[in-house]
Design a protein that fits this description.
The chain is mostly helical. It has one domain. About 80% of the residues lie in helices and about 0% in strands. The chain has five helices and no strands. Helix 1 crosses helix 4. InterPro entries: DUF3325. This is DUF3325 domain-containing protein. Keywords: Membrane, Transmembrane, Transmembrane helix. Pfam families: DUF3325.
Length: about 120
């Protein structure tokens, strides 16, 4: 479960970082304001940090970091493959993966699967 949620966060982060670049945003038909690009970069970085946190808390520092690196590489590769052929899909993929990841975290917490602190 955590593997899937952290992969969705990594996908949202890589897609957001992709859309924060002018060239890719125009290619996808998405035109953020100049001030919005900084916020998108921050959101993408926070998504990647959240994915790293989830994998480290689930698997430990060594395996978590290695798995996170694999997830970020796969998410970036998938975005890079989709962008030339179906560029209009990228904003929907980013929004969908962020929404599903947030829903997964809420289900994880409500179901009591989250690690107990203290």
């Amino acid at each position: 479960m955590m593997f899937l949620i952290s992969f969705l966060w990594a996908s949202a982060g890589m897609g957001t970082l992709c859309l924060a670049m002018d060239r890719h945003a125009k290619q996808a038909g998405y035109f953020p304001a100049k001030a919005g690009a900084g916020g998108m970069r921050l959101f993408g970085t926070m998504c990647l940090a959240g994915a790293l946190y989830l994998t480290i808390t689930d698997l430990g520092i060594g395996m978590g970091t290695a798995l996170w690196g694999c997830q970020v590489s796969l998410a970036g590769w998938l975005i890079a493959i989709i962008l030339p052929y179906r560029a209009k899909w990228v904003p929907a993929i980013v929004a969908g993966s962020a929404i599903v990841a947030m829903a997964g975290i809420l289900i994880y917490i409500v179901a009591g699967w989250a690690p107990q602190i203290g």
